Amino acid sequence: MAADTGDDHSFGRISRSKDVAFEYLTLAATLVGIVALGILFVYVTRDAVGWLDWQFLTSPPHPDPYEAGFYPALVGSIFLMIVIALVTFPLGVGAAVYLEEYAGDGPVERFVRINIANLAGVPSVVYGLLGLGLFVTLLDIGYGTLLVAGFTVSLLVLPIVIISAREAIRAVPDSRRQASYGMGATKWQTIRNVVLPEALPGIMTGTILALGRAIGETAPLIMIGAPTTVFGVPNSLFSKISAMPMQIYTWASYPDTAFQYGVVAAASVTLLVVLLSINSAAILVRNRYQ
Amino acid sequence: MARNVPDDGKPSRNERIDAAEASGETGGLIETSVTTEDSDEHSTPGRTIIESRGVDVFYDDVQALRGVDMEIPENRVTAMIGPSGCGKSTFLRTINRMNDLVDSARVEGELRFGGTNVYDEGVDPVALRRRIGMVFQSPNPFPKSIYDNAAYGLKVQDKTDDIDDRVERALRDAALWDEVQDRLDESGLELSGGQQQRLCIARAIAVDPDVLLMDEPASALDPVATSKVEDLIADLAEEYTVVIVTHNMQQAARISDKTAVFLTGGELVEFGDTNEIFENPEHDRVEDYITGKFG
Fold first, then answer.
1. Residue A173's closest chain B neighbor by CA?
2. Contact B138/A at CB under 8 A
3. What is the pLDDT of residue A179?
4. What is the pLDDT of residues B47-103, one digit of tens each?
5. Contact indicator for B137, B187 with CB cutoff of 8 Å
6. Of the candidates B138, B142, B207, which has its C-beta nearest A194's C-beta?
7. N or C: which end of chain B has fewer CB within 10 A?
8. Which chain A residue lies closest to B206 (C-alpha atoms)?
């Protein structure tokens, strides 16, 4: 009998070496992104020390790196976010409601659905070209204005908003719609009272994350002729604006190393902090309503 | 035709529908829907309220119901039993046109409610569903407060006069008031499964429909909650016409006046008084089914 050979039980043993190897492999894959982000954050924060202060956040740009400030770009980015949110939220939710609740499943609808997903993958520089052709040349709203920048980046993130809003609407259990229709509610009443309230946290999370994508966009702003440096904050929709990534790009090309390291680092940290705050807001919204 | 003239001298609901029909209006449902608030006192128990004539239902090319003929009596409990996939739920959803929401579904034949074929062109399915309430298989309250759940139909149907009283009455009629009266603003999702289903029943009866359709309302509940819902159904039949789908034959035998037995293939094999069906079924297949030889 096998039992009398001590620890060699009759079942035998199965090798786990591949299990262990695979676990470490997947762990490594997980760490690459996080470690890279961590290193970036540490380096850029170290460079920003001594540069990122109240004066930097509240002053306009200046040829002297010690006087230079980020205020117009910071405010420009925030205004840009507001325009983008106002444009993409109603359009995105509207399109998502149509696609999920009204549109049938014909070949045309399927074509539209597939292509919205494709649009989300179009490079941002191409959207910049579209904005230049449509809003600047054709509609003549003016090079590099807040409105043109807002519309152009809105087109860029709109597919993301539509896709996430569709996901959120689809996540509303069909049994709730049935309950509403069973009570003699019309389609509009069902959407208004049942579907949208329940999908709203998901829609808002998606929209906020899309804004996070929008705040880092530089290429479309270059294409529509946004000025590299602006000294004042926008006072109308037709003011020329700068945005944070645009200003960082400009400073990085200055020959003075004080700009290339100190000022750019301070601006990058500011951009990252704003971006991470936006993402945290999205997580808070999601948790709060779950 | 049996007509009862109530004390207040108003014409009964049945007369109004008859009048609408006589004047050639196929939209009788819409015409009368605003005047049904007082209807329940004037109903005629036992009179046919829903009449199915040769109803076929198809999902794309698959036929789910074959030539169903049935008369459902007013203020009685009519049970539909049969094995899974026999079409009993499909028939229930044909009555209030919930099948309209399924793109692939197609209905042929006539389904008369109060004399009007609900599949006539002039009939608005939304108006129809305001008179035929529905309770679903698994409890599906909205993620809203208990009060807002019970008030949902009233708000949607713009019946907001005395809304607090109507909500209270519905919750009392659904035997839920004592359990929830102190926490009406808590979410309906916080309730137990059995309470949720009674909340859904309250939601359905708050708008005072003529008919209550129930699609296996107790199948997701434990035995105690099931017996509460069954007791409730018996009470509801005093005011409403109840049509209930169940896969539980004992339940059908306990609570229903009439029983319809559907067998695989979407055929209504036997329809009659519940006692008759269970004690002396005409068809061998029905007897085999209710004695548990198959299904």
1. B140
2. yes
3. 92
4. 888 888 888 899 988 888 888 889 988 888 999 988 888 888 899 999 999 988 888
5. no
6. B142
7. N
8. A183
